[in-house]
Each structure stands twice: as C-alpha cells, then as structure tokens.
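Researcher: For the annotation table, I need structure tokens for Outer membrane protein beta-barrel domain-containing protein. Please keep the output clean. Sequence:
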Amino acid sequence: MIRRFALGGLLIAALCVPAWAGVGLSAGAGTLGLGLTLSAPIVPGWVDARLLVNGGRITRHETTDGLRYKGRAHFRNAALLADLYPFGGIFRVTGGVYYDDNRVDLTGTPVNGIYTVNGYTVPAAAVGPVTGRITYARFAPYLGLGVGNGARPGAGFTYGVDLGVMWDRPTTTLNAPGAAYDPALAAEIASVRAQIENQANRLKAYPVISVSLGYRF
C-alpha cells in the first residue's frame, strides 16, 4: 500500500511540474524514522508539494510486575504534503495526509518463571507467551510548520526542518494462551491491555520532528 501511495504521489508531481524543473531529493531522520523526500514546486516560491517515505525500527525494554517487556516499534509510513510559503521565503506552513503503517510489537517474559499481572500471580507455564501489538488507523492528517528550500529555481543543496503533529487512533491487542482456560487471568490480561491502550492514546497527536539534507536539480 505504501508503494501505491508513493507511486500515486509521483504521478501527481509529474503532471503538475513541467520537465521536473526545481525538483529536490533529500534524505532525513526524525520521529517517524529514516526517510526520503521528493519536493516539487507547484506555484514557484509560494506552494510546493512533498512526497515522503519513512522507515525504521526502535527496540525498548522495561520490567514491571515480574514481567520483562520488549517493545519494538516498526516505522513504515508515507505522506503527501503541501507546503505554503506565506512570505515567499523559506518559512512554510504544511498540511497533508500520512499513510500510517506503523506498529509496536510487544512481548512479555517472566523474570523468575512466574507471571504477576496486576497482582494476580500464576506460573509462567500456565500462561504461555504474552504478546501484543499496537496498530494505527491507516490515514492520518498532518499539520505543521518548518523551514526549507527543497523546491526552488536553480540547482544546489537543500535542507529542511519540520515540526508538526500527526493525528491518529491506536488499537491495542494483548494475548496469553492460558487466558482461554483461566477467567481470572483473562480479566487481568484485559485490564493490562486497557492500560497499554490508555497510554498509547496519549500519543493520538503524535509529534513529528524531522531534519533533512539533499540536492535540488
């Protein structure tokens, strides 16, 4: 789906920009991973279009209630953005939409062969592997501010700095095979899942910060 989104953006850019004049290509990094950006002028000096594709992975460990959790965030996202330069300089106001295929995979293993879930203690063998996942709605609106010169007349090096917010809705799953045979354990697992989703909901407005460097053709 990201590939289709990216190809669609390239087609739009090709139709809007004669001979690809002033098109810039850059690489960057930020809170949505490592990425590539294609910039093209729509109204030179005033309105540009950007197509972004990001990816990457981050792993974090945390121990609580006798469980050692591993969370692995997978970044896979693409965006089609419009940059408005209200003063004709490098300051820009940006709006657009992200295709959000990001996710977080969760695994929990017992520290001492015993699971303690919300105070409910049970042998690890009776629980099985605890696994979970946080996923997001596929399309998320974006609004932000920044500076950049990715699509300007003339060849040269380009840069970009962006600060904005992507609004999305997380969904959390958490599973333990033993919960199918233990109603009390199932209730505790459901409670933990609700706690994780409540924390994830704090990032419905996900901060997007990025920097990039590239070249304009």
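Researcher: And a one-line annotation?
Model: The two ends are 28 Å apart (CA to CA).
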